Amino acid sequence: MKKFGSLEAGGTKFVCAVGNGPDNFVKEIFPTKSPEETINKAIEFFKFHNRDCSLKAIGIGTFGPINLAKESETFGCLTTTPKVNWENTNMFTPFKNAFEIPVSIDTDVNTAALGEYTWGSAKDLNNFIYLTIGTGIGGGGIINGSFLQGDQYPEMGHIFLPKIKGDNFEGSCPYHDDMCFEGLASGTSIGLRCGLNASEIIESAQVWERVAEYISLALVNYIYISAPQKILIGGGVMKQTHLFAKIRNNVLKHLNGYNHSSINQKNISDYICPPDLGENSAILGGFALAKKAYSTNGSSN
Amino acid sequence: MKKFGSLEAGGTKFVCAVGNGPDNFVKEIFPTKSPEETINKAIEFFKFHNRDCSLKAIGIGTFGPINLAKESETFGCLTTTPKVNWENTNMFTPFKNAFEIPVSIDTDVNTAALGEYTWGSAKDLNNFIYLTIGTGIGGGGIINGSFLQGDQYPEMGHIFLPKIKGDNFEGSCPYHDDMCFEGLASGTSIGLRCGLNASEIIESAQVWERVAEYISLALVNYIYISAPQKILIGGGVMKQTHLFAKIRNNVLKHLNGYNHSSINQKNISDYICPPDLGENSAILGGFALAKKAYSTNGSSN
Question: If I label A165, which of A180, A239, B12, B168 is the partner at 20 to 30 A Cα–Cα?
């Protein structure tokens, strides 16, 4: 069995893994510190597991925003990230230079979507969205059979939403304040709203009603714009699994019968759901990215 | 030269045409009355132009919402349209039964997008949106090289938007009141806001500031969700051409530098613009639909 490397580079933690699929991989998790220290630690992990030169390729799913225009001089560099010290960090070249194997990079959400498409909840779907709601909010997926990627990619976490009446929170998005989804319902905004981490807030807290409502408003917009066959929602905030029932009810209420994808009370639990692969969507997607890079560029090495 | 039929079926008017492209067609326009009377008038138009049996196929772009699931018994039937008396009207079978040639049907906006893709502003683009703002608001286009169509299709006019502070209009959407784009900025809503048709309202009226703002908020959402290379906006409301400058400024203000498609002050006039084919986008798209149906099904007839 061929062995691949996978890196899920997040703003809070880096997850490194080697293996080749859901039934065969090992992973290591460490906190995101300075760019140099964190990237070097990931490189060391892959070097350790490549002592026998058995790694065939590495796939990277990274936080962003990042420049993925292949012809650009700054390909693989983070751009306007709010993550302190990480602006302009090159997430690709250090890995490319450290190993003589193909390295492929994409957004964390597209990589997670690729994992679900290859091995999980979205297997064989022609049109789905993968959303992650954690520190920030990001979305990826497949529309019309192709990934939303290339030199342009979406920023689904930044769509503008109606503000709930009575919600006076000033928003946490550095670009859009309280105008956008991320500014209103990300883990960061929940923390600012309550002075607590999402995991510390009780289920009955009012904040969850509001967060569920903003998520449902965003989902309505995704449905009306791209008519997905399924919407997967992962990320730290969605560990509050009680949110799913609230979101599903609110989406049905807001669609109000006006849609073409036959979403109804009976099937909505299958339509809006957590990703099958759970926390491993992006790591497994990284293997799929790596395999693709290997079969395209590296199989003759 | 082969001759094709094209029908743009709208809630206000039907446009019928025969020809084969932008430089070679004749058209006739009549108001939308009862389903039977209006559809029969369109059939008579095509019969008149098919006296010599020269029509090869007919393409129909229709208002909706419509069932376009090919395997469905009610394929081609309008569903929950607010247009009085037109609910459940079959927009396909009367034409299919009246002629022994291929007939193809799609939404009005996808048909218009196909026209722009074949002969107009969106020629050869891999990813664009075509929006029409008239009595209602609809959107179509290409994402990842394929049309947004099939048994599910978008309803881009119904995305939920933030309400402008101080705007107390209660909305005109029968499904979403003042929550959605169409409820806030369609020709219908402009009429209700002012008691006048869009064409009768002076350029300096406050309503245009609001309409431009809602359009720009919707565009920001399309950009963040599907990262189009171009957004074309047609329809009766956009005959107020002064709206374009306002919309472009507002979109840039709201994106606030956070996007990946290099939209800026210099290129935005090329990015958000009227369709090249103007009022003929959908009629010409109907020819393209008909040609496709002919080459797929009818070229041996």
Answer: A239
Interface test with B, best of A156, A160, A230, A251 (most B CBs within 10 A): A160
Chain A's closest residue to B218, CA to CA, is A160
Count CB atoms within 10 A of the CB of residue A291. Answer: 22
Same domain for B186 and B293, yes or no, is no
Residue with tokens 């597209």: A110
Q: Are residues B141 and B67 in the same domain?
A: no
Residues A263 and A138 in one domain: yes
Residues from chain A contacting residue B226 (CB–CB below 8 Å): 143, 148, 154, 225-226
pLDDT, one tens digit per residue, over B11-27 is 889 999 999 999 999 99
* Distance separating alpha carbons of residues B282 and B15, to the nearest angstrom: 9
According to the model, what pLDDT value does residue B245 have? 98
Same-domain check for residues B214 and B246:
yes
* Chain B positions in Cβ-Cβ contact with residue A227 (cut-off 8 Å): 148, 152-154
pLDDT in tens, A191-215: 999 988 888 888 888 899 999 999 9
User: In angstroms, rounded to a whole number, what is the distance separating the alpha carbons of residues A167 and A178?
Assistant: 10
Report pLDDT digits (tens) over B211-228. Answer: 999 999 999 999 999 889
Residue B155 contacts by C-beta under 8 Å, 6 or more apart in sequence?
Answer: A224, A258, A259, A260, B65, B138
Establish if A79 belongs to a structural domain: yes
Is residue B119 in some structural domain?
A: no
**Cβ within 8 Å, pair A152-B127:** yes
Q: Is residue A119 part of a domain?
A: no
Structural domain boundaries enclosing B53:
3-111+279-298
Q: What is the pTM of this model?
A: 0.91
> In chain B, how many domains are there?
2
What is the distance between the alpha carbons of residues B160 and A221, in angstroms, rounded to a whole number?
6
Q: Do A226 and B148 touch (CB under 8 A)?
A: yes
Distance from CA of A268 to the nearest CA of B (A): 16
Note whether B291 and B231 are same-domain residues. no
